[in-house]
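Supplementary notes (optional reading)

For those who missed the lab, this is the record we used. Protein: Putative non-heme bromoperoxidase BpoC. Length: 262 residues.
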Amino acid sequence: MAILHANGRDLCYSDSGGDGPVIVLAHGYFLDGSMFQGQLDGLAPGHRVVTWDARGHGGTPDDGVPFTYWDSARDLLALMDALGIGEATVGGVSQGGFISLRAALLAPDRIGRLVLFDTESHACDPGDQVAYRGLFDVLAANGPVPEVLDGLAAQLIGDHPAAADWVRKWRAAPELPLGTPVGCLLDRDDITGRLPEIGCPALLVRGSEDRSIPAERMRALRDGLPGATGVQTVQGAAHSPPLTHPKEVNELLRRFLADEIA
């Protein structure tokens, strides 16, 4: 991982390099760019794969200033500028999809394709707001409580050995994303009505066991995005298919980039 200064802040990122078509991937909430190691390993060197840590996650610090996913989308575009990337396939998981959709609205000429995993265009459901805020308050007050982290890992990663790896990582982390990223996540705006403005091809992928994003929210992306594929299902995956099922996801990405998925 490396650090560069973009959009007025330090951003932590990883870049496989090379001259192939560029794919820029953004992680889900409470994770970081390392969740895409399977894509870095499986798609390079045929593709240049860039991953990055959003504000308050991984190696990108939380500076305490409230922000929105529109600000994160500007971070993404500034990162592309700093790396000399004019246009790219851009996407991510959950939060990474929130960011990528907004980047496509801000700079449609920069986003050649979207790859969207277990994400949505809607605001956070009010019931989810209450539940998540309670969970994050417990962690903020009591530290990395194992029982809470175990439940969070089960939701984000599912029944997979990587869940235990991430619990260990969270427990060892100097801090968790419990500051300004919480407000960004829970108070995000609804951009569903703007989906028809995004004309680029968009790959939609959902884990069959995802408990975070209801299936109808991804069907709304399918219906609203003019260039969307049908929703592709990764059997056995929960909320983070690129992390837990890299082989299946990489095959979907290759087929999508070759225009073999409609």
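If you only remember one thing from this example: The chain has one domain: 2-121+192-257.
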